[in-house]
């Protein structure tokens, strides 16, 4: 019967966040190990198990198992914005389809000049460690502009900080301070998006979306909820993955050398390989709704576990030499879970691929091959599970 074993380090430890593989490598060969335990939480980490969990979404879902009306009422009273149904668009198929259609249109409106400005700094020799704020804001700047949102730099920074506060509150239902911050963050984001939704300049995608949402019979509150989901998902996802991509460009100079010579060679599968090796998604929770057997272990209704995505993306029984950046790997529809799957498929995958199709060549062209990371000084933000933000990634350019 398989079981969970203790991880010898905290999942919150920056060393584990930045390089989890050495801590879990030995577990893959132990067939009876279903996962690891840390900080009171259980994590599954194998490709095959994750595949089974994703396929079994009717038994193992993200939503809580039981709806405790009294507890929900109290939560809504204490954290009204956090309790607001901003993820409505993900549970309503029609709303998700409408948002998806507009996200596809968004792809052609991305402006790339901001990217070059962010990365051309690396053409200067010396130490660079004050650039992360600009890299962090880059995806939001590009995507909000493409929609036709208007913003000041201060608003952009505030939206970014609010997105972080919100994600931190996802997996911490017992942490009053994080929930409070998440609630305040959502309240500000909602007010900003509602204001933009109602005053979208004519001719913008945002204006078209507001009209289409109303014409399709959605209440304004629901149209706004769809956009809030998008706005709050954008910054962490793309910016943390950008920082990790930058790190891997410097960690694997030999693998990257042919790309540097010809950055135009960057293709979807090359971007996927970078994202497989490392991306912002760390652990996402699941609740057992109907009893279910995983790797021979019976999971009972009410059990809770996390999918540890870096473990899945580097499972050596599925990926040959998983630590290596190998641009010959072939990604098919279902031989990876980089963007999740089935009911919880990523709504931003096309945007991510398009964004990196501009960002990766710019990084390759601007970051000299002799540049190196000052590893000892990399900093990671806080004790949160779903995603971890790199706040400092000092680089030395010769
Ligand atoms: C670096 C690129 C990205 C990667 C690797 C990635 C990965 C993932 C993964 C693994 C999931 C599945 C979650 C689960 O199993 O519970 C997911 C879901 C999701 N992603 Fe992404 N993502 C990326 C970019 C984005 C972007 C740019 C956005 C928004 C613009 C976004 C928005 C979302 C949302 C809203 C969900 C939840 C979908 C649902 O529940 O229906 N992601 N993503």
Automatic annotation (TrEMBL):
Cofactors that this protein relies on: heme
Spans through the membrane: none
Superkingdom of this protein's organism: Bacteria
SUPFAM superfamilies (alphabetical): Cytochrome P450
Signal peptide limits: none
Classification via InterPro entries: Cyt_P450 (IPR001128), Cyt_P450_sf (IPR036396)
Membership in a protein family: Belongs to the cytochrome P450 family.
Protein name (Swiss-Prot/TrEMBL): Cytochrome P450
Organism: Candidatus Litorirhabdus singularis
């Amino acid at each position: 019967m398989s079981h969970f074993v203790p991880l010898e380090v905290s999942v919150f430890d920056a060393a584990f966040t930045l390089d989890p593989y050495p801590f879990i490598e030995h577990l893959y060969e132990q067939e009876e190990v279903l996962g690891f335990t840390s900080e009171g939480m259980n994590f599954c980490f194998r490709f095959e198990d994750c595949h089974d969990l994703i396929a079994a979404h009717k038994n193992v879902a993200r939503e809580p198992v039981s709806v405790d009306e009294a507890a929900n009422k109290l939560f809504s009273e204490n954290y009204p914005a956090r309790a607001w149904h901003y993820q409505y668009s993900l549970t309503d198929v029609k709303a998700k389809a409408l948002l998806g259609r507009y996200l596809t249109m968004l792809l052609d409106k991305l402006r790339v000049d901001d990217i070059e400005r962010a990365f051309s700094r690396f053409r200067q020799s010396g130490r660079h460690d004050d650039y992360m704020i600009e890299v962090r804001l880059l995806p939001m700047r590009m995507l909000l502009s493409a929609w036709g949102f208007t913003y000041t730099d201060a608003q952009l920074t505030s939206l970014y900080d609010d997105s972080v506060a919100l994600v931190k509150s996802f997996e911490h239902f017992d942490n009053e301070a994080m929930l409070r911050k998440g609630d305040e963050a959502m309240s500000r984001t909602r007010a900003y998006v509602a204001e933009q939704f109602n005053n979208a300049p004519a001719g913008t995608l945002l204006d078209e979306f507001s009209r289409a949402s109303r014409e399709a019979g959605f209440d304004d509150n629901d149209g706004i909820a769809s956009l809030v989901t998008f706005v709050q998902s954008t910054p962490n996802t793309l910016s943390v993955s950008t920082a990790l991509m930058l790190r891997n460009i410097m960690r694997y100079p030999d693998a990257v050398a042919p790309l540097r010579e010809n950055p135009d060679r960057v293709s979807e599968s090359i971007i996927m390989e970078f994202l497989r090796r490392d991306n912002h998604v760390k652990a996402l929770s699941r609740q057992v709704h109907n009893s279910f057997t995983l790797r021979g272990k019976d999971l009972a209704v009410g059990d809770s576990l996390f999918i540890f995505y870096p473990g899945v993306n580097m499972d050596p029984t599925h990926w040959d030499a998983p630590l290596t950046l190998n641009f010959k790997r072939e990604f098919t529809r279902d031989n990876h879970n980089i963007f999740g799957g089935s009911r919880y498929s990523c709504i931003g995958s096309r945007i991510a691929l398009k964004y990196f199709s501009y960002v990766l060549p710019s990084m390759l062209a601007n970051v000299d091959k002799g540049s190196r990371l000052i590893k000892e000084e990399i900093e990671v933000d806080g004790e949160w599970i779903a995603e971890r933000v790199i706040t400092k990634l000092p680089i030395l350019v010769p």
